[in-house]
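Hi W., the FE2/S2 (inorganic) cluster complex you wanted:
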Amino acid sequence: MSEEKRVISVEAGSEFNRRAFFVKLGLGSLSIAAAGTAAFAYQYLSPNVLYEPSPIVNAGRPESYAVDSVTLDVNSGIYLIHAQEGFFALSAVCTHLGCLTAWKPELGIIACPCHGSKFMRDGVKIEGPAPRPLPWLQTWVSDEGDLMVDRSITIRPMQFVRI
Ligand code: FES
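Structure:
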């Protein structure tokens, strides 16, 4: 092979390699763009739904609550109270900024650890920045005899469940 032909052959080979490189680069870029578009399309088409737990709480058997007891269910954020007059449920979420309150048996009050609001056992505010009393929640006895509380429904105070 003459010297001139070999030079032409090497230049043609390098041109081919450069072209193949840019073709692959272009295909790679298109693939990344297509994957990004597919991801955004999937996100756009997926339902934007917030799955929340049911507001209805099964508080269990009435006989498991002693008379004059105040029981905090931390998971559901409610107090189940067995008063002399009957059962009722309060929201345990402070009406100031939403902290979870705590029952203080030694003082006989419900206290908020965040900014010091205090409430009586029936939810009435004693002191502190809370603007409203702790709301009473709808409470009833199921057909199976369990105490049920609907956290999404507030009721007027002093509506006891008598068994
Ligand atoms: S959140 Fe309860 S007093 Fe502020």
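The chain has a mean pLDDT of 92.

W.
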